Each structure stands twice: as C-alpha cells, then as structure tokens.
Amino acid sequence: MKNKILLPFFLFFSITCFAQKDITWKDLSHVTFKDKYFEEYDAVFLHPSFSESIKALEGKELTITGYFLSIDPKRQFYILSKGPMSACFFCGVGGPETAIELQFESEPKFKTDDIVTVTGKFKLNAEDVKHFNYIFTETKGELIN
C-alpha cells in the first residue's frame, strides 16, 4: 500500500524536476544593467544584475520561441532574438535581455528571421563580454514558420 502511494509522487517529482521548462521573453526581462568598466578592453559595457527568478533557471533545460539570427555562420555564432533582424537589440530596439546566444550541437539549418523554438541548457554570463548575458548550450531547434 505504501509503495502505491509513493509511486505517483515519485513520477510527478521526476517529471517536474527533469523536464524542460517553457519560458517567455517576459521571464528574461527581470534583469537590470549598470555600466561597468572592463580594464582588459579599456571600455565600459552593460553589466547585468539578474533577478532571483532568472538565477533559478540557470543550468536548467529551457524552451523559448523567437527569431533566429545567423550572425557569423563560419564561427558558428547564432542568436535567438525577441524581434527580427531589423528590430533586434543591435539596432537599438530592446536591450541585451532580448537576445540569447545559441550554441548548437550540430549546424542549424535555419535562415535569418526564421521563427524557431529552441531548447537548450540555460547559462548566465555577467563577466565575459565576448558572449551574451543569456546562453543556451546543447541547443536544438525546430522551425515554426
């Protein structure tokens, strides 16, 4: 009898702890930025202060939908953006929290501005200015449009 009671609890716990979690761009907006000087570059960059809700996502497998941007395919540099290339954060629309660096397991077959859903392991980055603040590693994607 005791095992019959524990089995549903164990199954629920296993599924909720290890399953991917869908997030939205609003979820990623809970971050503030301040200017910080980086001596190595003799320049000031935006430095993030992540909310506790964002910190709680680190290391988890997450899924989000956005616009695929192929920035430099030779260097395998890809981004998922809240908006299309013409309205991405590089163009002054939104901040760094509206883009995620994508590190794919294999070369993606998407084109710039394809709407895609990606799943990857979520990593936060506050100190390495060569990478985005939000990074998906082990990324896999699916074309939506």
3D architecture notes:
- About 15% of the residues lie in helices and about 40% in strands.
- The chain is mostly beta strands.
- The protein has a single domain (about 20-145), classed as Protein of unknown function (DUF3299) (OB fold (Dihydrolipoamide Acetyltransferase, E2P), Beta Barrel), CATH 2.40.50.870.
- The strands form two sheets. Strands 4-5-6-8-7 form a five-stranded mixed barrel. A two-stranded antiparallel sheet has the order 2-3.
- The chain starts with a helix and ends with a strand.
- The model is unreliable at about 5-15 (pLDDT under 50).
Structural class comes to mainly beta
Biggest pleated sheet? 5 strands, mixed, barrel
User: pLDDT below 50 for ≥5 consecutive residues: which ranges?
Assistant: 6-16
Inertia-based shape = globular
Helix amount: 10-25%
Main β-sheet, spatial strand arrangement: 4-5-6-8-7
Distance between the termini: 50 Å
Output the helix-strand order.
Answer: HEEEHEEEEE
Strand content: 35-45%
